[in-house]
Specification:
Largest sheet: 5 strands, antiparallel
CATH topology of the largest domain: Jelly Rolls
Structural class: alpha+beta
Distance between the termini: 23 Å
Number of helices: 11
Number of domains: 2
CATH class of the largest domain: Mainly Beta
Shape: globular
CATH architecture of the largest domain: Sandwich
Number of strands: 9
Radius of gyration: 18 Å
Helix content: 40-55%
Length: 264
């Protein structure tokens, strides 16, 4: 795990690289958060299950995602090696260079979005043996792509404000400050970011609570709920059922060791 270049911090949270060998396939419950990961794979593909019908699935090698407002079940099909770039949703929009409306709640092959440039980048990263050098290569590529990308400044500002406040910001305040009507604000978010501002705010609030649940030892669920802006336990539990498919207690019980996420 490594941080990106300091200039990329508003757009990339971290790089995660590694390999995993398991005797049996491991399926993780991936939760919707502020992160839209892009995977550069050098090994066996990942298996993405339909949460409503786990008998249905697709296998993906290198892939991109848009924002999610639901959980996803992702498993391994064998030993794998990959680099995962944890973009913020805004960073993913700028890096991928396409509106995220068509990518919301989807995991798509990377070359469907980036074309031959995506295939070449996967090959470049696969031919580098040193992790630090791989991360440097990603720094350069992301800087180049972000340097030619653009969004309306008011939209970028509004998304960044929601992220900084973990979703605890009135949508009316965003509309008033940007000078946009509520309807235009919603359209811009839906088209370019892939979620309405209200749904994104809920995802950000939930994501912060889920992160606390994943990484904090001890502490009461009620304290986590209050710290993350939930007015009562009922709303806290409701969001977990909506976004994670389980209660906070059930999710906590599924936590993997060493910050390995949540087993499905």
């Amino acid at each position: 795990m490594a941080p990106p270049h300091p200039s990329l911090r508003p757009f990339v949270r971290e790089y995660v690289g590694g390999s995993e060998w398991t005797r049996e396939p491991l399926v993780r419950r991936e939760l919707p958060t502020e992160i839209a990961p892009v995977i550069f794979s050098f090994g066996a593909p990942f298996r993405v299950f339909d949460a409503a019908d786990p008998a249905r699935f697709v296998d993906r090698g290198s892939f991109a995602t848009g924002p999610f407002d639901r959980f996803v079940l992702v498993g391994s099909t064998g030993s794998y090696s990959c680099v995962q770039v944890n973009f913020t949703i805004l960073g993913a929009r700028l890096f991928l260079g396409v509106p995220l409306r068509g990518l919301a709640n989807h995991v798509v092959p990377l070359d469907e979005v980036l074309g031959i440039a995506g295939r070449r980048l996967v090959e470049d990263l696969g031919n580098i043996d040193d992790w630090a050098a791989r991360f440097d290569r990603l720094d350069r590529e992301i800087m180049t792509r972000l340097g030619t990308a653009s969004l309306p400044p008011s939209l970028s500002w509004a998304v960044q404000q929601l992220i900084r406040r973990h979703g605890q910001l009135a949508i009316s305040t965003l509309a008033e400050t940007t000078g946009w009507s509520h309807r235009h604000l919603v359209k811009q978010f839906t088209d370019q970011i892939g979620l309405t501002p209200k749904v994104l705010a809920r995802v950000l609030r939930f994501g912060r609570a889920a992160d606390r649940l994943a990484h904090v030892s001890g502490g009461h669920l009620a304290d986590i709920a209050a710290d993350c802006g939930y007015y009562d336990q009922a709303h806290f539990t409701r969001d977990f059922r909506t976004f994670a498919g389980v209660t906070p207690t059930e999710l906590l019980a599924s936590r993997l060791p060493n910050r390995g996420g949540f087993v499905a």
